[in-house]
Amino acid sequence: MQPTSSKPFSYETFPISGVVAYFSMEIAINPAMPTYSGGLGVLAGDTLRSMADLGVPLVAFSLIHRKGYFQQHLDASGVQSEDIQPWNPSDFCVEEKARVTVSVEGRTVTVRCWRYDLVGRYGHVVPIYLLDTDLEGNSGWDRGLTDHLYGGDTNYRLQQEIVLGMGGVRMVHALGYRVNVYHMNEGHAALLTLGLLERQLGGGPLGAATETDIEQVRKKCVFTTHTPVPAGHDRFYTELAIRILGSDRTSRLETLGCFRDGMLNMTLLALRFSRYANGVAMQHAKISREMFPEFPIDSITNGVHAPTWVSDTFQQMLDAHISSWRRDTLYLRSAIDLPEQDILAAHATNKEALLAEVARRTHQALNPKVLTLGFARRAATYKRATLLFTDPKRLLEIATKAGGLQILYAGKAHPQDEPGKALIQQVVAEAAKLSNDMLRIVYLENYDWDLGALMTAGVDVWVNTPRRPYEASGTSGMKAALNGVPSLSILDGWWIEGCVEGFTGWAIEDGASDAEEADSLYKKLETAVVPLYLDAPEKWAGLMRTTVAFNGSYFSTNRMARQYTRNAYYPVKLIERVTSWKKPPRAEGA
Ligand SMILES: *Cc1c(COP(=O)(O)O)cnc(C)c1O
To answer: Cβ contacts of residue 322 below 8 Å, gap of 6+?
Structure first.
């Protein structure tokens, strides 16, 4: 591409003639479309919203997920049950005429796609194509391949990944796009590299691929890894790979070094075929380099799409003082000068809206004056949702000292994650046991986009307690920060970068055990959070202001999309990557 142009900038004269093709197994496109499960999908959606705002020529591919992820129901004791979320693509999308085929387990499967036009702030459109195998002519099984997000077993999953990766590449060409860059958002899309290699070979056997052929593919691919632990990477047993992909492809992938511990490793495949790779926070990239030392892995820290996650009331308040914050979130730095009364009033409205929703759902009237903590995320064991209950007596003492404490929980467990489901029951049981006049604990059903927006804006403090280093980034605390809500969190993922003690929230200090970290959590509540909350409201307003100024300004997909565009897609220079990073020691209390 030609990076310089003497013409004034406009979308028409953007000096790039092709597009970026962005691939993700899940994308949170619209709150009414159940095409996402959690953080990865929300990040993908926020990324695309910012790319559209910034006018970046980009198209996206995912699966239609006709039955959604799942609707969560909890009974009185917190036992989770799941319902499918059938939806009608034609209510939101336009069917494309193009048809392509892929080979799955020796069968030929026909794929179509539905287009959703994501319109940016200034009218630029990012089309999102949702691949769909529900077509006459495909077998009953194959028609269901694009039904369930993260459903079924590894057999179903690998077949879906063929549709996404290999079907996606064929669809890109059937739709007539010229692609400069393929971006794999997590390893689920890694098979697109195989699709590109097969195109490169004109349909010839993969065994014939030379290093030059592979280099041609590498030149076009970039990859973002999202998983900080080996068990989190998408992997498939050799026998399964041979059966579903065929032995020619599988053995070629083996000789290319895409296997680890006897399994096809989608992260390795993506890394092997990418000219650029990144982790989603500084610390996560460092851990990824340790896991895959043969690859240089850069870092682009996640963000959230500010206009999507800032509440309406807070948006009006920001508009009154900071122009252009939607166009460029860096301007939010001047939130440092927001009037205290305005920020407190906007937060009070956010809190009322949240508590009204809690009352509507649970018939429990919470008190808007009482310190309210929020904890909502996937119910996975490493997130340690029950850390707050380590010492119930101490928690009750804190609640009493604070003149009351309210804790709101939400989160889904993957249908096959029994320990995750047990964790929800444990939180619900503790809530029933501990709740009294001073301490109120409520678990809200069916955590999704809408509930996430209400909670991150409406609580007073956002709590996160992952076991290090399992949290690659985390983004819910960023949504909170944009609404002026500080975090109280373990120093993992984004929070290592985001925590400025006493100004954007507080760190739960690293401990040698869960008990030690729980102790630090209680200490921070006792010595920092509660005293500040009970002190003059101006001081809390000051904390909210610095939270928006430091973290709302930076942890946005507006900044992140610009980094992807200039560091990954169209780099000024390819070689100056971040290859080492060490968090400087924090100044205590400052
Ligand atoms: C933002 C969001 C997430 C991701 O948040 P984490 O901090 O990674 O837990 C997950 N689910 C929903 C519904 C969200 O809105």
So the answer is: 331, 332, 334, 335, 338
- Calculate how far, in angstroms, residue 38's C-alpha sits from the geometric centre of ligand 1: 5
Q: Specify the residue with its C-alpha closest to ligand 1, atom 5.
A: 476
pLDDT digits (tens, 9 = 90+) for 534-565: 999 999 999 999 999 999 999 999 999 999 99
Mapping DSSP to helix (H, G, I), strand (E, B) and coil, where does residue 412 land?
coil
Average pLDDT over residues 46-70: 97
DSSP string, 323-391: TTTTT-GGGGGGGGG--HHHHHHHHHHHHHHHHHHHHHHH-----TTSEEEEEES---GGG-TTGGGSS
Q: Is the dihedral of CA 192, 197, 203, 208 positive or negative?
A: negative
Whether 419 is covered by a domain: the verdict is yes
- Residue 84 CA to ligand 1 center (angstroms) comes to 20
| Closest C-alpha residue for ligand 1 atom 13 | 448
Flag whether 521 is in a domain: yes
Do both 393 and 420 map to the same domain?
A: yes
Domain end, chosen from 299, 323, 339, is at 299
Verify that 314 and 411 share a domain, yes or no.
Answer: yes
Write out the H or E segment, with its range, that includes residue 552: none
* CA nearest ligand 1 atom 11, residue: 38
Q: Which of 29, 475, 485 to mutate to test the pocket of ligand 1 (most atoms within 8 A of CB)?
A: 475
Q: Does the residue 7 lie in any domain?
A: no
Q: How high is the pLDDT of residue 228?
A: 87
91 and 159, same domain (yes or no): yes
Structural domain count, the chain: 2
Q: Quick check: pTM over 0.85?
A: yes
Q: Tell me, yes or no, whether 327 and 346 share the same domain.
A: yes
Structural contact between residues 389 and 473, judged by C-beta atoms closer than 8 angstroms:
no
Rounded Cα gap, residues 179 and 202, in angstroms = 17
- Residue 584 lies inside a defined structural domain of this protein: no
Residue 8, Cβ density class (10 Å: 0-12 exposed, 13-18 middle, ≥19 buried): exposed
The burial of 219, by beta-carbon neighbours within 10 Å (0-12 exposed, 13-18 middle, 19 or more buried), is given as exposed
- Side-chain half-sphere exposure of 133, counting CA atoms within 13 A: 29
Residues 273 and 327 in one domain: no
Tokens representing 529 are 């959070």
What is the gyration radius of the CA atoms in the chain, in angstroms? Answer: 24
Query: How do residues 275-303 score in pLDDT, each as one tens digit?
Result: 999 999 999 999 999 999 999 999 999 99
CA of 182 to the centre of ligand 1 (A): 25
Percent above pLDDT 70 for the chain: 95
| Alpha-carbon torsion (324, 328, 331, 335), positive or negative | positive
Same-domain status, 277 and 312? no
**CATH code, 522:** 3.40.50.2000
The answer on pLDDT for 17 being more than 80 is: no
Domain that holds residue 506: 306-553
| 195 and 61 within one domain | yes
- Measured by CA distance, the residue closest to atom 3 of ligand 1 is 39
Q: Is 477 found in the same domain as 371?
A: yes
Last residue of a domain, one of 257, 283, 299: 299
Please name every residue paired with 299 in a beta bridge, in sequence order, or none if there are none. 279
